[in-house]
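wait is this the right file?? whatever heres the structure
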């Protein structure tokens, strides 16, 4: 087969045109100022209902102050990878604090949840091993699986019967087995049956890795997540600091030998500059606030409940859920973006989510309130949905 020779720019332009024609082209909108319940988007004030800043910490004056104090004390950057000259006492302090909070043996910071998942999953397994991964797992977990040499089996979303079928077929052929699942799924807000998954791991001698990115801080006792809520002990627990914690960075909590192994093998840890020390010192402060934030947790879940109930009454297709994530199923990608634009014209920012982030035919609007939204802002958003209803499948 012969290719038409193209310059790189021509090639990417063709790809962009194809995305545009399919209604799948993405371009970020610009926000000025902090991410709070209301934001300045492209110069206009709107209610922001599509961040993962569930507890409202990203713009919390006390957290901002903790970061300023950290900069004064610790400086601007870590200077290098942790293994070169970059392990500061605040990094270890934050790791110990997070491990204690979760009742896990130790913890390890990464510069993002994406790099944590890619680094961990690619480091842990070899060609002799096998992975069982939920079909809705995050892109970073999928990429981690792609980067290692293990055999990967994808089980149907939250389907423990399918997981057991695959374990029965494939577990005994491998040395190590790892089951990987998010606990609250990022685009659907539904919860993995972690107790049943843990039982299967025990029965088939597999380790369990959970990604609590969307649960930590919001769900479970003291915001410790779904595993804590269901008294399940995972072997590895990953969570990002970019969502409820309001900052950036991430960590994995696990037994000390696993942490020591990752320090030696996780390439995104070894070959990447450590998170800024002021961030590590702020993590210690933020962990204590997250732990005590029962009122904020109640508020964000109350807002999500109100949105679920009201939008369902308006005829929108909303699945049940117990997390702050409220997906409004539209199905068509172009219509999803049109609805997002119409809502924005009414002062409400809700992002459309399209393939490949979600499966074909399941494009949606993903609503995620913050604890710091007022009841009036939530009602204003509901009123905007009522006005655009006629454009959606709900409106016929
Ligand atoms: N895991 C899940 C389930 C996520 O939703 C995300 C972020 N969207 C990540 C990992 C990546 O975390 P970070 O944003 O810190 O890279």
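ok assuming it is, sequence goes like this
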């Amino acid at each position: 087969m012969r290719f038409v020779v193209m310059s790189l720019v021509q090639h990417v332009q063709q790809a962009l045109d194809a995305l545009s024609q399919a209604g799948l082209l993405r371009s970020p909108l610009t926000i000025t100022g902090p991410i709070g319940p209301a934001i300045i988007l492209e110069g206009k004030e709107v209610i922001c209902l599509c961040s993962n800043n569930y507890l409202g910490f990203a713009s919390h004056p006390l957290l901002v102050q903790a970061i300023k104090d950290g900069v004064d004390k610790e400086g601007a950057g870590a200077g290098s990878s942790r293994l070169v000259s970059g392990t500061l006492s605040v990094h270890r302090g934050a790791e110990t604090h997070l491990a204690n909070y979760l009742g896990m043996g130790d913890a390890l910071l990464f510069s993002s949840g994406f790099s944590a998942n890619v680094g961990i999953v690619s480091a842990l397994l070899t060609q002799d091993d096998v992975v069982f991964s939920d079909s809705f797992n995050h892109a970073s977990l999928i990429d981690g699986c792609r980067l290692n040499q293990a055999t990967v089996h994808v089980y149907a979303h939250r389907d423990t019967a399918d997981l057991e079928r695959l374990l029965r077929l494939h577990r005994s052929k491998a040395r190590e087995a790892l089951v990987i699942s998010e606990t609250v799924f990022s685009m659907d807000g539904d919860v993995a049956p972690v107790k049943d998954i843990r039982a299967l791991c025990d029965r088939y001698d597999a380790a369990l890795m959970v990604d609590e990115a969307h649960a930590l801080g919001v769900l479970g006792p003291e915001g410790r997540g779904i595993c804590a809520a269901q008294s399940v002990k995972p072997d590895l627990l990953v969570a990002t600091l970019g969502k409820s914690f309001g900052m950036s960075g991430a960590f994995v909590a696990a037994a000390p030998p696993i942490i020591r192994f990752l320090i030696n093998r996780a390439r995104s840890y070894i070959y990447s500059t450590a998170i800024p020390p002021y961030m590590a010192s702020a993590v210690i402060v933020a962990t204590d606030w997250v732990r005590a934030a029962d009122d904020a947790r109640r508020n964000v879940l109350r807002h999500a409940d109100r949105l679920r109930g009201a939008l369902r009454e308006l005829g929108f297709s909303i699945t049940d859920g117990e997390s702050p994530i409220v997906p409004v199923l539209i199905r068509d990608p172009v219509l999803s973006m049109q609805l997002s634009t119409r809502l924005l014209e009414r002062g409400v920012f809700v992002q459309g989510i399209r393939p490949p982030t979600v499966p074909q035919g399941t494009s949606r609007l993903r609503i995620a309130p913050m604890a710091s939204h007022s009841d009036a802002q939530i009602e204003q958003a509901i009123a905007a949905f009522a006005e655009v209803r006629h454009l959606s499948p709900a409106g016929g």
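The CA atoms of residues 220 and 228 lie 6 Å apart. so i think its the right one actually
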